[in-house]
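Quick illustration, no need to memorize.
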Amino acid sequence: MMKKTWQLILLIFIVAVFATACGTDAKETTTGSEEKKEKETLTIKHQLGETTVEKNPEKVVVFDFGALDTLDKLAVDVVGVPKQSLPGYLEKYNDDKYENVGGLKEPDFEKINEIGPDLIIISGRQQDSYEEFSEIAPTIFVGLDNTRYMDSYKENSNLLGEIFGKESEVESELAKVEEAIKGLNEKATASGKNALVILANEGNISAYGPGSRFGILHDVFGIKAVDENLEVSTHGQSVSPEYLVEKDPDYLFIVDRGAVVEGGQSSAKSIVENSLVENIQAVKNDNVVYLDADFWYLSGGGLISVAEMVKEVEAAIE
């Protein structure tokens, strides 16, 4: 009898151990499955290469203000930004909760290494340092192609939406912007007016036409260019006040670089508001428009900035 009792106890013990082991295996399998799901990746082709990125990365460093603008609109948090030239409307990122990762052209690689990001987002001002960024963490390039502004803008927005699981939000915001642009384009076309957009920089004037850095004014918003033959480049074509008199635009749109990079000191008014150009149509009809350099110079291509750019131009031509 005693022998049978011990045999029964031993059998129960073996069954219990087996059941526990099976439970542990099942738990480990479930956990492994969850980890695999959390680490779902995307392979992204961009201008500087091909990068494998985890979906919903937690530690994100952003150097492109257009991308930061978009992530802010999508309520996606980041850990590090270059604080030196932050646009005013993104001032919240000056808070100590965000790490300062250097300047737009002088990244603080030591700080970035210290952060250990899961993703770094860069654009044109940082492209020469792409390899160094990539040694630290997966790095993607989201610079705008000005020759196909809207396509490039939508591609970048959709990419960020895909990485952070915000596809429907991006789709909704893009639809709003496209609807606003449609209305602006109709108004601009109906007006029949032409325009010139210039960048004022330390006493110098650069003019921009279709296909250029600020070509969205013509290519997308539909305002006729006063000069179709301007040099297409990031820095624009250097011109003089005499050029403004010669072309005599109906509207003169000005991006004042000094307002955002020289401590807020304007470098534009003394150039264009002088006796030489006071008789051009734009000045006489009070159609000189100072565009917000935060949107146009620092962070174009974001879900917020493009929407605001549309509003600015539409208000100017009413």
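The mean pLDDT is 87.
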